[in-house]
Design goal:
237 residues; alpha/beta; six-stranded parallel β-sheet; 7 helices; 13% strand
Length: 237
């Protein structure tokens, strides 16, 4: 299997870095082909702007989404976007490794999504969304670390349910929207506080990576279950 790891942490010696390094070693040992996009090491540009397009369709009025569609049709994205899109097309399975910051991904990773998940590449311009998105046929997994304990991310926890309130916009609004089949996330709760827990998480993560196909998928309704008003049909509620 071809596995891409999109890694977003500024410190190579961090626990996120350890999880990334373990993933490379464990997956390679299992016979998988692995590529890593280390966004901080690459100095990946997070801001979406005019420089993303080599041949802008309308130089007089800049509309980012329309320029994305034009660049998709003419293969005229900037080189850094092209390279990331090529990695996604190569991959069968993508792992997103990052610390949970402000209930979401670090800014550099959000910029990666903004720029790489382009109109005409993962949606729009004759491409569907969700189960019909441009990256359909591929799986994706979030691997993240938290600063608050597990109990804080329960339905009655102070920080809100991590699956429904925190990670939903990533799993459903980014990954599934683009066509990925998201699988259950790997979450390391407050690893900075406990060396024993860090070692345990590394062991758990290695076991998970040794059988990628066994990781349960997150069940989402396909687009066919919705009506023309984007409402779930009565029979599927």
């Amino acid at each position: 299997m071809n596995v891409l790891i999109v890694y977003a942490h500024p410190e190579p010696k961090s626990f996120n870095g350890a999880l990334k390094d373990l993933a490379v070693a464990a997956l390679t040992a299992e016979g998988h082909q692995v590529q890593v996009s280390d966004l901080y090491a690459m100095n990946f540009k997070a801001a979406a702007d005019r420089d993303d397009f080599m041949m802008p369709e309308n130089p007089d009025f800049f509309k980012y989404q329309l320029e994305q569609g034009h660049a998709s049709r003419t293969n005229s994205f900037s080189q850094d976007i092209k390279e990331e899109q090529e990695k996604l097309l190569w991959a069968d399975f993508v792992i997103f490794q990052f610390p949970l910051w402000w209930y979401s991904v670090p800014a550099i990773l959000k910029g990666w999504f903004d720029r790489v998940f382009a109109s005409g590449f993962v949606y729009g311009q004759g491409i569907g969304r969700y189960d019909q998105g441009g990256l359909k046929g591929r799986k994706a997994m979030v691997s993240t670390t938290t600063g608050s304990p597990r109990q804080a991310y329960t339905p009655y926890g102070m920080d809100g349910d991590i699956h429904e309130k925190i990670l939903y916009h990533i799993h459903h609004g980014m990954l599934y929207f683009a066509g990925f089949e998201p699988v259950e996330p790997f979450i390391a709760w407050t690893p900075a506080r406990d060396e024993e827990a860090r070692n345990r998480y590394l062991d758990e993560y290695k076991k998970r990576l040794q059988n990628l196909s066994a990781i349960p998928s997150i069940p989402y309704h396909p687009t066919a279950h919705y009506d023309e008003h984007h409402q779930l049909k009565i029979e599927y509620r």
